[in-house]
Amino acid sequence: MERGEPVSAVLDVLTAQAMVVLQDRPVVALTPWLAEALEECTGSGRTLQIVTPPSARLSMPLKAAGPAVQWIVHDGGGYYEGLTGRPMRWDGAVFGPVPDARDYAPGFLTRPSGPVGAQLTLTFRARHTRHGVLGGQVERLVTILTGRPPAGWGDSEPVAHGWQRSDLTSHVRERGAAATRLIVVGAGGGRSALATLEFSQGGTAEVTTLTVGHPPADPPAVAHLPALVETLVAEHPVSSLLAQLNPGRADVTYEPRWMGSPAPVGMAVAGDRSGPSGIPARPAGAGQAPMTWFELGDGRSPEGWQRHQALLRHLTAS
Q: Domain range for residue 201?
């Protein structure tokens, strides 16, 4: 693609409803080109449909890029949605669900190509002053969970900047009131870590999702999560933090195959709060940043989501 050339000029298929891109590579990431295509789709109301063979995997930032991106897997004589297994078909304008399909596509139910470990995902919200340095929360979490600070950040993959919180802060501030979405990459330490950061309101509001991969022999220490929250907020306060587990690859990429559903472990909320009956609570912060940790489940049972919804209703009403 030539510099300045519109994305639509080099797409495989362009219709009023979709931009279709064929990708035949081991891992499909949120490259600068795909990031630009996604921006065009968002502006035009189209869906970016990425078509791959069943051997391909998706990167975490591309998976988390939002509803405007759809992964379509071409398997034999048919197609299916890579993250859900829903059979799909091309109607001349867009890939859509097969109307009479009642089951997952067969390819979605085949065995994963690699070992299935666990992915620990932490989603937190934080507020910042207009002149504070950003990135402290994700830096602390990555360091605790992998043993090393982040390696870098950027708005596409591979990330273009080495880890400097001051540079990240300047980038967000220069965007003014516009929302900014960034990627942070861990430095290894035996565990892969990737985060997507969303800043709004001039950088004063942050929503970040961090995912850390664990191989089968190194499961996440979920019992230590309340202590992790306490360590985090001692230096970098958050408004809330939700922890969940998802069966998956340790390299934090995603295959177009069923590996299991995510389930919550717990949620931390700022302040000394009480929860509904049946949801254990304990302090997880002190001093200037008191937090309450609510136990929602073991990270394996989907019933934890019912407790999560009950907790949210209780906190909203109180």
A: 117-317
What is the percent of the chain with per-residue pLDDT over 90, rounded to a whole number?
A: 91
What pLDDT digit, counting tens, does each position of 14-59 carry?
Answer: 999 999 999 999 999 999 999 999 999 999 999 999 999 999 999 9
CA distance 181 to 208: 9
Q: Closest Cα to residue 172, out of 157, 158, 184? A: 184
pTM of the model: 0.94
Name the domain boundary from 109, 135, 154: 109
Local confidence band at 164 (pLDDT 50, 70, 90 cut-offs): very high
Q: Looking only at Cα atoms, what is the longest distance across the chain?
A: 61
312 and 163 inside one domain: yes
146 shares its domain with 294: yes
Report which of 222, 249, 231 is spatially closest to residue 291, judged by C-alpha positions.
Answer: 231
* HSE-CB of 23 using CA atoms within 13 angstroms: 26
**Cα separations (Å) of 57 from 82, 98, 109, 252?**
9, 23, 15, 10
State how far the Cα of 234 lies from the Cα of 123, in Å rounded to an integer: 18
